[in-house]
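Archive entry: two folds, one per protein. Generate the first.
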Amino acid sequence: MKSLQELHEKNHPLCTCALKETATQPVFGAGNENANIVFIGEAPGEKEDISGKPFCGKSGTILNDALEKVKLSRDTVYITNTVKYRPPANRDPKPEEKESCLEWLFDELFFIKPTYIVTLGKHALTTFIQTKGLLLEDIAGKPRTIKLTHPKSKKNLSATLIPTFHPAATIYNKRYREIFYTTIQNIQND
């Protein structure tokens, strides 16, 4: 692939995710193709489904604010979701929906080859590590090296995984908000 746009246009018709039937459109990842940092959410919400752009609603405003505080912009990072289509009524994505979008997500990551993968919420995190018995609050902001194997090509990619809370979770929980902002700040300072 020569560009992420080409990558998205290839993956959309091939993706077997059942959410395609109820979503308005796919929500492609957006940002810098050479980003050092990739943020991954769980799934598009209503505003994202309408606009076709990731994190353009209230969660996007919180993410933008966190980026601005550390002098980053959406033009310098890449933002995407584990699932590329909005689940009905913004419900959590089902495991089979995440699985059906996994190759597309890995195509994005292997194209960009980021140093940091920041997962926003537990659904994005469980794409990369098992969390049984772990609370997100206990591991948020704590980096760990991961090795990804592309499901199709079997190529490998190493990156630093940094879990944190989804911006939506920070709206009503001050502690989560502090952890979220500190995590973003620490990435920039690394």
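Generate the second and append.
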Amino acid sequence: MEGVFTFLGAINHSHGFVFAGHLLLTAGLALLLAKMTMKNLRLVPVGTQNVMEAYLQGVIAMGRDVIGETNARKYLPLVATIGLIVFIANVLGIIPGFESPTGNINMTLPLAIIVFVYYNFEGIRKNGVVHYFAHFMGPVKMLAPLMFPIEIVSHISRIISLSFRLFGNIKGDDLFLWVLLMLAPWIVPLPAFLLLTFSALLQTFIFMILTYVYLAGAVMLEEESL
């Protein structure tokens, strides 16, 4: 955000530089966390390994009711990676002197496009091109010319929904924190930090669960028709 102090902004005032720097920082922190987890694997997990294993089990449990145990594990790498990146990016903006990359549409839009392309690819790969797109026409053949374009628009709108929901909420949180720190920089904002941390976690959960929901709709066509 222009006018807000960031450590990277003190080096270069270009917003593109600040955004790219915080995006690289987010990726670096995620890689560092993965390296710390894998550095000394134990049968009985401790420390970072314990936290990450609990996180992965939580992601599987999240997807189990949506897409089934097998598929939840199959798509775990995608959903867990997205969740980790989004959460770190969300929390980064809560720390004074840093900015949330997810508060920029240039990050949330590519993430939404990745999910969109991947779930459609998986749907086509599992069901075949004809069967997958036939599902867009609905159960009544007479309404197919009407339903098909509606379904196409509905699926494309998911890109907007995913990207703008995350971007809008995190941008709003950043602006709220900025105003609060300007009005009362000491002690008073502390409860707000807890609220913003919860919001960061909630937005991460929503992005992850919607990814599972879209994957379920693409690969489980037979179950939907029952």
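Annotation attached to the second fold: Residues 7-225 form one domain. The chain has one domain: 7-225.
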